[in-house]
Amino acid sequence: MVKIYTNHLFITPENRKEVFPLLFDLCYTDNSILHTLYEFVPTIEACDVAIVPVNLRRFGTRNDLNQFISEAQKKHKIVWLYSGGDFGLTLDSAVHVFRNGGFHSKLPSTTFILPSFINDPFQNKDQGVVAIPKIALPQIGFVGHAANSITKQLKELIGYCKNNLDIILNREQADFQRFYPSSTKRYHFLKQLSKSEKVATNFILRKNYSAGAKTVQDKAIARQEFFDNIAANPYTFCMRGAGNFSVRFYETLAMGRIPVVVNTDIRLPLDDQIDWSKHCIMVSEENMIQELVAFHTDIEPKDFIQMQIDNRNLWLNFLEREAYFSTIYGIFKNKINEV
Length: 339
Hints:
Elements: E1 2-5, H1 21-28, E2 38-40, E3 49-51, H2 56-59, H3 62-74, E4 78-83, E5 96-99, E6 111-113, E7 139-145, H4 150-168, H5 182-195, E8 200-206, H6 216-232, E9 235-238, H7 247-254, E10 258-262, E11 281-283, H8 288-298, H9 301-319, H10 321-338
């Protein structure tokens, strides 16, 4: 087992949503397989890994963080940090940061991307994927927020400025990012695809998130429409939001479909363990249609079917919550044994 130390004083009802995801499972669930892989120890001296218990924005000041890191490193311990939210924080390579997104070219190798931990879209975990056969044109779907109004652009700009102001005033520990009007860009890319005679599209563009649903029933209807669209199309268009990652990417994999990802210098999870070229199509903003068509033209029909099946298995075996931290266990158990 990997022995972990953390400060349990921060694991409170008020911090429930901010707890490092692994610690959340270990502290709030009883039947997780992770209990057989990780165990708590009462002191830093006894641990293999020292974990900052909550999202950095809830842990205190930068001095508090530095003190925790320094104490662990003096005792030659591995340090894990959780930097949640859209932006996340880049630290030096002496610690291991777990975060949802970031820019691959700027991240050290010790940064681990957390998948978006979604619920399984299938009611039965053992449910097999009904793969869609290859047809002449690449058929791509999308249901979601994509707007081109000035009001929406201003709203995104205001949100961006607020986030950076919080960083400047030390209310948020996160990286600065350039402004990226994701909903507007998404709208233009989807329009390009819709107009192309080389692609078959099945898009439902919404002006608001979750179709503006207010009631539980309306939200459930909107959600079902979303997953029905993924199921009906072999490809799904995936692109970053405010942060440089896509939740839809993981939902597409879990459904056994193929994500078409606009590459905005993203880093995908476990990129030294997973050959992502076998599971998704990375397209550039400039040549998106040509690259999608080229991939679809080249792939053999049997490989097209297999890719969908493999994507569901990839999510189950590496990206589902327990599976991810089981993989992380294997990576760090090897590191610990090498010391």
